[in-house]
Amino acid sequence: MAVWDEPFSATQSCAEQGGSSRDCFRVFVSVAEEVFRRRSSELFNFLPVENSRILTVEAYYAVMMHELAHYFLRHEERVRSEEISRSKAEFEADTQGIFWALANGRTPESLSYFIFPIMVFDLAFGGVSSSHYDAPICRQGSIRSISRTVGRASDVIIHLSDGSFRNPDASIALSFLTETSPQFIGDWQRENCQNTFENELGALSKEINALVAIFRNHIDLLVPQPNGDMTEPNWAFSPGDPLPLISDVLDAAQKATFTRWLYASVLSNLVSRAAITPGAHSYFDVNSEEYERILRYVYNNGTSKNHGVMLYGTAGLGYLNDPTLDGLLTHIARLELSLEYDHRTGNTYWWLADAYLLLGLCSKAKSTYIRAMDDVLSDADPILKEYRRLYNELPC
Ligand SMILES: [Zn+2]
C-alpha cells in the first residue's frame, strides 16, 4: 500500500538514528496524517466528502467484525482446549471478518489500518511479535491476500448462490470466478511468511477453489435466465435439478475449516432457491435426512440470518411435501422459528397468517396479517389498503 511508504521509511530512519519507540511513534503518526491529508482526494476520490470520518468508521467496523468473529467461531474455548493455535484463531477471525465486510458492502481491507502500524513498529524495534502470533508483516500480507483474492471470490460465490448475480450470460459469471481464484504470489510474503503462506492461506485457497469448481460445473443452473422483466428479482434457479449441486456443496462443506460460514450461507441460499423453483416439491423433500443435515450445518456454522432464511425459504415445501394437518403444523412451526431468526421478513408473517387461517385460528391470523403490513409494507399502495380493509373485516 503505497500510502504507507512514507510513514514507514520515516519511522525506520527515526529508529536508525537512535530515536526511542515513543519518539518514532510520534513521527509515524504525524507523517501518516500529513500523507493522508495530502493524498486524500487522489486516494479516496470514490468516497463522499467526509473521507476521514468514513475511513475511521470502516476501520472500527473491521475491528468489530474481527472481534465478533472470535466470539462466533468460539475461539476462547477452542484455543483453551488446544483445538487450534492462537495464530490460527487470528487467521480465522481475519478471514471471517473480511467475508462479513464484503457481504455487507464494507471495505474489507480496513483491518490493515490497525495491523500496518503494528507491523512498522515490529520491523523497526522488534518485540511486538510473540511466539503465539504470526509476525505482523505476515498478518498484513494475509489480510491483503484474503481481501483481494479469496474475499472477492467469496463475494461472487455468494451473489451466484442467492440469485443476485443478474447477468444472464453464464460465461461472464465464469470469468469472474476465474479471475478471482486465489493466487498468493507476493514475493515478500513468500520469503517472510512461509508458514502462513503454505498452511493457512494454502488451505483457505483450496477450500474456496473447491467451491469455485462446483459452481463452474453447475453454472447454467445458478445464473437465473431472463424471464422477460430483468428489473424484477428472479431468485429461482434456471430449469434443471438442483439436488446434485446441493449435494456437492454439502460434501465439500464437511471438509471446510476456514470457510464454514461461507458454505453455510451458500447452502442456505441454494436450498431456499431450490424450494421456490417451480415444481420443487416433486424433487425436494424437506422431511428428508439430507434436508435435516443441511439445516444442522447451517445452524452450527452460519449466522442466525442464514438459518432464518433457510427455514423461511423451505417453509412452504413442508406443507406441499405433506399436505396433511401434520404437514401444516410443521410448516407453521418452521415459519414461527424463522421469525425468531430472521424476523424482518414480511412474507414470513404473511405466509404464517395464511396458515393460521387454514387452521381456523382467525384472530391469530388477523393480528399476524396486520403485523406483516405494519412491519414491512407501505400503506400508500392501494392494493395493500384494500388488503388491510379485508383483514380488518375478518369475522373475529
Ligand atoms: Zn484477534
Summarize this entry quickly.
By secondary structure, the chain is mainly alpha-helical. It has 20 helices and no strands.
Write the layout of secondary structure elements.
Elements: H1 5-16, H2 21-43, H3 51-72, H4 75-80, H5 86-103, H6 112-125, H7 136-162, H8 170-179, H9 187-192, H10 194-217, H11 219-222, H12 243-255, H13 260-276, H14 280-283, H15 289-301, H16 304-321, H17 325-341, H18 346-358, H19 362-376, H20 382-392
Helix pairs in contact: 1-2, 1-6, 3-5, 5-7, 6-7, 7-8, 7-10, 7-13, 10-12, 12-13, 13-15, 13-16, 16-17, 17-18, 18-19, 19-20
The structure holds zinc ion.
Question: Could you explain how this protein is built, in words?
Answer:
- This protein has 20 helices and no strands.
- The model is unreliable at 228-233 (pLDDT under 50).
- The longest helix has 27 residues, at 136-162.
- Helix 1 packs antiparallel against helix 2, helix 5 crosses helix 7 and helix 10 (194-217) packs antiparallel against helix 12 (243-255).
- Helices cover 72% and strands 0% of the residues.
- By secondary structure, the chain is mainly alpha-helical.
- Bound molecules: zinc ion.
- Zinc ion binds next to helix 3 and helix 5.
